[in-house]
Amino acid sequence: MDERHETTRGIPAATVVVFRHAHGGGDPQILLTVRSRQLAFAGGMAVFPGGRVDPADRELADRLASDDADEAAHRIAAIRETLEETGLVIGVAGDIDAATACEARAMLAADRPFGSVIDRFGWRLDLATIVPFARWFPQNEGLTRIFDTRFYLADIGTGAVDLAVAEDEATHLFWTSAREALAMADRGEIGVIFPTRRNLERLAGFTTFGEARDHALDFPVRPIIPFVGEVGGRRSICIPDDAGYPVTSEPLDQAKRQ
Prior knowledge:
This protein is α+β, with helices and mostly antiparallel strands. It has helices spanning 55-63, 69-86, 98-109, 114-121, 178-186, 194-203, 209-218; strands at 11-20, 29-35, 46-47, 50-52, 92-93, 124-125, 131-136, 147-155, 170-176, 223-224, 227-231, 234-238, 249-251. The strands form three sheets. Strands 1, 2, 3, 4, 7, 8, 9 and 10 form an eight-stranded mixed sheet that branches. A three-stranded antiparallel sheet has the order 11-12-13, with no helix packed on it. Helix 3 runs antiparallel to helix 4 (114-121). It is globular. The relative contact order is 0.19. The model is unreliable at 1-7 and 37-43 (pLDDT under 50).
């Protein structure tokens, strides 16, 4: 019997798996950031770019007159957080180069609303390029902070971009394949929390962004709520086995949960 109980509150958040072609071929690469050890949540861990959904994200979503303003706000948060944390512009159409990306990032660092940044450069949000992939809500694990996080996919093609770390949030950024990220974790070179590892395992099965996008469409997004159960005689943290993940459990004494 698994040990579950229901709660309803979580901090709305969004994170995005950014794909690019690997130089010289091979598995596509994804962008990871190593969080500062000073941060309360996942300090020192390698994660995908992302963060909380801000009120300004919701205001911008309302301006779009979207049929689903809540979903639009999450995608906007994923776009904004990626720009803030990495300097990379995704989910936006218009004239974009390294100089405008740098200026846009500086405006966000100066607490300018993302909507005003969009207006300043004549950009247009292209939310259709931010593809829903998963939603994780670890609401019954006794964590100090409970994030209800929506995961997205985005593709930048060749990946000829400049990146720079946001030093108040991360120590460095790097591109790698999902397979190599798992190998790095196994070697102790990076730390990954339970949701990140499960998503890396899922991503490792794809040889192109298109495969990942099509797979995501086969598994409608619903909240994944990890639970504790017995697997092979060991107390393990588990997820449902019908959500598209090749690995659905990990022993409690091995899993990194925050």
